[in-house]
Specification:
Layout lengths: L1 E9 L10 E10 L2 E10 L10 H5 L3 H4 L5 H12 L3 E4 L2 H13 L13 E4 H8 L7 H8 L11 H17 L9 H8 L19 H18 L7
Parallel strand pairs: 1-4, 4-5
Antiparallel strand pairs: 1-2, 2-3
Helix pairs in contact: 6-7
């Protein structure tokens, strides 16, 4: 399964007021593992920032002056996300802005959902932690994802943090390991052992507390997936 964790930065909070995308950041996951492929692009918005937006991102029109306009990068961006499942925190915001950008280029570009599925990680977080704060920063703190280097909002950094938070949120995996292919291949290697030379297997006794924890974990899996592998 190919997933793209995506984030955008914009000139303001509402595309309906003419605000534009200024940055796109994407991280590719295949079978819930990072491939090392990313997409990152600053974009000239062709308009001013709304008050407060620059303080959030740290971006300025001076910095973006020589960056391409969305029309120049649209095809490359769409090719990167084509056919994937997009994981986006508060998806309505980012998809709304991206659809608005595409609409400016002509009807033949269609909409984001014409090219990719969309999964809203904010909705997942609200289901798991109802009544609690579920911003990206709050999720990182709750799930043990180190976001101490996030001083400003940045699309690629936020996409990387969201990738870790999403995997922890959906599988209890607190670290996705943005490591090298060589490291991953080493991890997969196996060693054949002579079973006869190992001697008798030790008898493992599970105490009541561990058994109760195991049963509780199975119930959680059943609620999410409908069944657990131990039921088969």
């Amino acid at each position: 399964m190919r997933q793209i964790v995506l984030d955008t930065e914009t000139t303001g909070l509402e595309w309906k007021k003419g605000n534009r995308v200024v940055e796109i950041g994407c991280v590719e996951l295949v079978e819930r593992r990072p491939t090392g492929r990313t997409y990152h692009q600053y974009i000239h918005p062709e308009r001013e920032f709304e008050p407060g937006a620059q303080e959030v991102t740290g971006l300025t029109l001076e910095f973006l002056a020589d960056k391409p306009k969305f029309a120049a990068v649209a095809d490359e961006f769409l090719a990167f996300i084509e056919g994937a499942e997009l994981v986006i925190h508060n998806a309505a915001f980012d998809v709304g802005f991206l659809d608005h950008e595409l609409s400016r280029l002509g009807d033949h570009y269609g909409r984001i959902r014409d090219r990719a599925q969309v999964l809203d990680s904010l909705e997942l977080a609200r289901q798991r932690y109802p009544g609690q704060r579920n911003s990206l920063d709050a999720l990182c703190r709750r799930l043990g994802v180190d976001n101490s280097h996030r001083q400003l909002h940045g699309a690629l950094l936020d996409a990387q943090l969201l990738a870790e938070a999403y995997l922890a949120l959906t599988a209890g995996q607190s670290e996705i390991g943005f490591d090298s292919v060589e490291t991953r291949e080493t991890r997969r290697s196996t060693v054949l052992l002579d079973a006869a030379a190992l001697g008798p297997r030790p008898k493992v006794v599970v105490d009541e507390a561990d058994m109760a924890a195991h049963v509780a974990r199975l119930e959680t899996i059943r609620k999410k997936a409908g069944s657990a592998i131990w039921d088969l």
